[in-house]
Task: structure prediction
Amino acid sequence: MPAGEGYNRDHPIINVSGPKAMDISKMDFPATMVVVGGFDLLQDWQKRYYEWLKKSGKEAYMVEYPNMCHGFYAFPELPESEQLMSDVKDFVHMVLKKTTN
Result:
């Protein structure tokens, strides 16, 4: 937090898509992939972030893994971790294809 400011969960540094969020509607903002695990304690925040991006007119994609927890991609032995890496690769290729055309 900036010096002199107390803790506030809706501070735009902490909650970029919260009630005090910047207006990004006119900003050049990259396409964004939001990954949500069904057992992730932060999934409501992640979904609100995705919705905020969409309402701001940004290109956003949400990929859900219903049986996964927060940070599941850190466990390469999980099949969903491998699937996510494939999904990220496909997302990057899609975005690059759009920018090079």
Q: What stands out?
A: Helices lie at 43-55, 79-100. The two ends are 41 Å apart (CA to CA). The longest strand covers residues 32-37. The mean pLDDT is 93.
